[in-house]
Design brief:
mainly alpha; 101 residues
Length: 101
């Protein structure tokens, strides 16, 4: 059952529901900036962290606060985001940088 704040206006609910995805998008924008600066390993690492942040937000926030982070059930969203994020972080950590071999 989803509960919403009792006195929130429609605009306030809209802003509050989109704050989690805005945080994730901001971290992903930082990852893109790193990739554009030829720091692809760091960018991949930050992208994985952004995915883990999304998993944490989906897990910890109530249904009415997650906005478009809610795609499937809470359990499925959290597991899939955590597995993908951990995989990206692991790959970024374990791959040797090019040219240092």
């Amino acid at each position: 059952m989803t509960t919403q704040p009792p006195e929130a206006s429609r605009f306030t609910r809209y802003v509050v529901c989109n704050l989690p995805i805005l945080l994730v998008v901001a971290v992903m924008a930082g990852a893109v900036m790193l990739v554009l600066e030829d720091r692809w390993r760091r960018g991949a690492f930050v992208f994985g962290i952004a995915t883990l942040i999304a998993a944490g937000l989906r897990f910890s926030l109530p249904e009415w606060r997650v906005g478009i982070l809610a795609v499937r059930t809470k359990r499925a969203d959290c597991i899939s985001l955590a597995v993908v994020g951990a995989g990206i972080v692991w790959l970024a950590y374990t791959i040797d940088p090019l040219g240092t071999g």
